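#struct-pred
JK: can someone run the complex with 4'-deoxy-4'-aminopyridoxal-5'-phosphate? inputs below
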Amino acid sequence: MALDLLPYAYFEGQFVPIEEARVSLTTHALQYGTGVFGGIRGYLAEDGSAINIFRLPDHFRRLRNSARMVKINLPYGVEDLCELAIELTRRNEPTSNVYYRPFAYKSGQNLAPTMYGVADEFAIFMTRLNEYYTNTSGLQVMVSSWQRLPDVAIPSRAKISGSYINSSLANTEAKEYGFDEAIMLNERGKVSEGSASNLFLVRDGVLITTPVTASILEGITRRSIIQIARDMGIPFEEREVDRSELYIADELFFCGTGVQISGIGEVDKRPVGEEYPGPIMTALRNRFLDVVKGKVPEYREWLTPVPIASPIPAQ
Ligand code: PMP
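RT: done, C-alpha cells with the ligand placed:
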C-alpha cells in the first residue's frame, strides 16, 4: 500500500517538512541496506483527543538492540527516542490511526561494505495507517520457496533494512501466485514466520508460536499476545513447528504491528480448521483491539498517550 505521509519528519537532528527529508544517492544505507528500523502504531482515541502509541519504549529498545547487533551508532537513549516520537506526533496533529517509522542508518559514503568510519543518522516519519490487508475474510497463504534468512547469515532478530529483500522475495512470490501472503520456513525446515509478521497456530485448544531461535524477528505484538493469552488462561506453548502442522491446525494467524492480528483461511490450498474465524483467535483479537484502544485498564501502561492540540472526532 502507498504511504499516506504526515507533514513533518524528524531528520538530521531537526523537525522538517517531509519533502525536505531527502538523502543522497551515495548514502551507504541506500547502497548496502545498512540501516535498522522500527514500525510502531499510534491509535487515535475514540474522541479524537489523543494518539495512544503502543509499546513505544519497547519498540525503541528493540531498535537500539538492532543497531547494536549491526554496529550502527544510535546516540539517543530510549527516553530521548520516545520524546522525539511524542514531539513529532504533536507537530503532525494526526486525525487518524498512524504508523511511525524510525530509521537509524549509515548516512555517510564508503565503497566498502563496512560499518567502520561511516557516519550514522537517525530519522522518523509518520504515515496514516488503518488495515494492512484488504482481505479480511481469511488470508490465503502459501509456504514460500524462499527460506527465512538464517541468523548465521544476517541477524534475524534484528530489524535490518537489507534483510527485507528476504521478506520482499517471499511476499512477491506469494502475490504473483495469487496468494495474499507467505509463510517462511527456516534453514532447518521448521516454520519461521510471515514476510512482515510472526505466526501463531492453535491445535486442540493450545496456542502455539515458533521460538525466538527459529530465525524470527522478535515481535512486540507476539510478546503482547503471549501475555494476553496467559492472562486469559489460554494454554500456550512456544516450540518448533513443522510445515505439516500448518495443514492440520485448527486456527492460524499472523501478528505484527502492521497486520495486528490477521487470520489465515487457507494454507497451500488447504482450508484451516473447521470454521473461520476460529474462537481463540477471535477472543485474542477482540481483547488485543480493546487493549490498543485503551479500553483495558490492566494494559494501559503499554500505551503512551499524546494529546492532540486541536482534536477532531474519529470517524
Ligand atoms: N516479523 C517480521 C519479519 C516483521 O517485519 C514484523 C513487523 N515488524 C514482525 C515479525 C512483527 O513484529 P512486531 O510485532 O514487533 O511489529
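RT: quick notes.
The two ends are 21 Å apart (CA to CA).
The longest helix spans residues 56-70.
JK: thanks, will look after standup
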